[in-house]
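--- STAGE predict ---
source: upstream dedup step, 1 unique chain passed
mode: sequence only
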Amino acid sequence: MSIGIYVESKETDSLVNQTLITPTPTEVKIFARQLDLSNPQGRYLWQITTQLDMPESVVTKSPIAVILTDRDIEALSRNNVSTLGVKAIRANETHGTVLGLSQPHDKLVQELVDRLKSADETLNNLVTDNRRNNPIVLRPIPYEQEVTNRVVNVDIQAPEKQHSYSMEMATIPDMKWSRDYITRKLVNNLTEFEVYDNAMRNHENILLEGHAGSGKTMSVLAYASARGHRYYNVSSHIGLEASQLFGKWIPTPDGHFRWQDGAVTELVRNGGVLLLNEVNFMPERVTTVLFGLLDARREIQLMDNNGEVIKAHNELLVIADMNPNYRGTRPMNQAWKDRFHHIIEFPYDKAIETKLVKSPALINLANQLRDEFDKEAIETPISTRKLVSFINNANNLGLDYATYCFVNGFAEHERQAVKLVMETHKANLVTDLAPATNKVVTESEVNL
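--- STAGE serialize ---
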């Protein structure tokens, strides 16, 4: 385990120089980029560079150090520091202090590189993560790779073939998810994004309730994209195991075992947005591990990893969603539900549907079928996603084919009734869709 160091300075009022200094077993790597604050939509990639290419602009805030996780180190081997960069910038915004004396950017980077190479343990003073009591033990560079203290010796034969073990981790969603997203108005023009911001600041949990395809998952994905937060979606199912989310011991090629954090554990350590999808379908063997994370303790305990307790990162937002009373789900008991400070209903949003579905006849059809759903005459929900698919199929392959696919989306015993309802709207659908001028809606524009 080691640390990476972040340095920031301003070239002008709108140009910001950012540098990441990252140690490896054999060298210190330097990554840099320059942001143009006047162009917030610009995409700026970290580029590996040298001390000679450092700017001379003045550094006015103290450098910040962040702990490198196994995931960071693996990404660093591929010269990918995008996630580490987000973590460092967030730490700088929260904990960075103004320097008493200003220093040139290039001189400070040179000094920090030299201190890292010589394993100067006072660099631990730059670490902002106050959840860790013990300092990071630095090693002079270059040094020989050592086995971490999480390795356990076991008496087994090393595998004949070297296997690659990986667990999907949190990432920052592409900007396309937020670019075209239409936020909801909840109460007095308050949007769900404003509620999410408030919940993250105050360490509160959110529960979204609504039928399939009403936009719950897309809302959270778009929020993480808009705010630049790392994001992970737990898809609940009956076979979900705690080890898939929280971590497990995995064999190494040399016949040992090492602990590997799961995606949820990694996000709890380092911050971001965690979505518990269809939480009322989640097995109890998983929810019991989450209880401590969702109450005042804000922690998870890894019993399989010697009982390690992990305090939640200051910028962790937990959002759960659920479809009410769907087959295979179970009612959420009050003790479980009380862990959510915000409970937001996510109905099919008529304002959003009107923007996405340019056919009043189709919306009227959907509303009639939804009335039948509410009366329990049919069991299949009529989602906004289903309506968008109808429009795209009609424009691309014709109204008859769109109708065929739409009807097939219902349970077999419901289809005849749905066909009869569609017949009453057919003439108006032909009028709306005959010109076939409706734009095909892309996946990123559908708030589902």
